[in-house]
Specification:
291 residues, binds adenosine-5'-diphosphate
């Protein structure tokens, strides 16, 4: 007996309208290099709209982290401008920008320095001048959200990478930034831990937080991001809705990007791009054929 896939519905959902909405981040002709005459970011312009969930992808060394740190104010562009909610941020330091943008480092250990999880999550809140009561309430809220409330008295140093990652995220979320940049948040996490973290991020996104996720996990992009920006050699080489970008498998392969198996399978079997197994199964039905 053979099982032949049959399409139930011929078209996947339409792409999100990425042109709608207020700009959260506007990058204008950005140039940056760590050394003289060696440009790492080259004439890069980009607009990210409020409430977007964007995936930033590209080979190692393409400039993703550098770009994220330029947006977050950790680095300053040599040329060009960075606007955040209409304000020219090139003039402000990282402390001022931190109110709008939370950048979560690739390695949580660059960020964590307190002796207890509670101190770590409260640090930024205290620095912002919140009362003790407010701090306590906020720590409770975010630690519950990230599932670390049982760890508040622990020393982060002795926890797992997944827990430290959650704590790093919690300490940024506590400050309630309007934009969050996660730099390879899922490295070293199990699929279950990744899903738990990304589901929390999606919750924030649904509440209006603009999210940029740098990742090498293409299933994370396929499942969670509306938009994909692919960088190569300090420039953007493609930018569009995830389904559209992931439909051109050959183009992505030139940049060493391998789309999830379900994307390849659905393109081959039914000529459409389904981004997740669930989506594929929703649209494609198997029926028994022959004997
Ligand atoms: P990605 O995040 O895409 O891997 P990066 O932004 O980390 O890319 O790196 C882009 C380029 O800049 C690479 O060639 C890298 O070696 C270089 N680079 C990154 N950080 C530094 C640094 N602190 N000093 C000098 N060169 C750096």
């Amino acid at each position: 007996m053979r099982r032949i896939p049959k399409l139930v519905s011929y078209r996947p959902p339409p792409p999100p309208n990425l042109n709608a909405g207020e700009p959260a981040i506007v990058l204008e002709d950005l140039w940056f290099g760590y050394q003289k005459d060696e440009w790492v970011i080259k004439a890069l312009s980009l607009v990210v709209k409020k409430g977007e969930m964007m995936g930033l992808i590209g080979q190692n060394g393409s400039g993703k982290t550098t770009l994220a740190q330029l947006v977050a104010g950790i680095l300053r562009p040599v040329r060009g401008r960075v606007f955040v909610f209409g304000k020219d941020m090139t003039k402000y330091g990282v402390m001022i920008r931190g109110r709008d943008i939370g950048y979560i480092f690739q390695n949580p250990d660059y960020q964590i320095f307190s002796n207890t999880v509670r101190d770590e999550i409260s640090y930024g809140l205290k620095a912002a001048g919140m009362s003790e009561k407010e701090v306590e309430a906020r720590v409770k809220e975010v630690s519950e959200m990230l599932g670390v409330s049982k760890l508040l008295d622990e020393d982060p140093f002795f926890l797992t990478k997944a827990d430290r990652q959650r704590i790093a995220v919690a300490s940024i979320l506590a400050l309630n930034p309007r934009i969050i940049i996660l730099d390879e948040p899922t490295t070293g996490l199990s699929p279950g831990e990744t899903t738990a973290l990304m589901d929390t991020v999606v919750k924030l996104n649904k509440l209006g937080t603009t999210i940029i996720t740098i990742t090498h996990d293409m299933w994370v992009v396929a499942r969670y991001c509306d938009r994909v920006v692919l960088m190569a050699d300090g420039k953007i080489v493609v930018d569009g809705p995830t389904r559209t970008v992931f439909s051109d498998i050959e183009f992505l392969e030139k940049y060493d990007i391998e789309v999830p198996t379900v994307v390849k399978l659905s393109r081959k079997l039914v000529g459409e791009t389904y981004l997740t197994v669930e989506e594929f199964l929703e649209h494609v039905e198997f029926y028994k054929h022959g004997g």
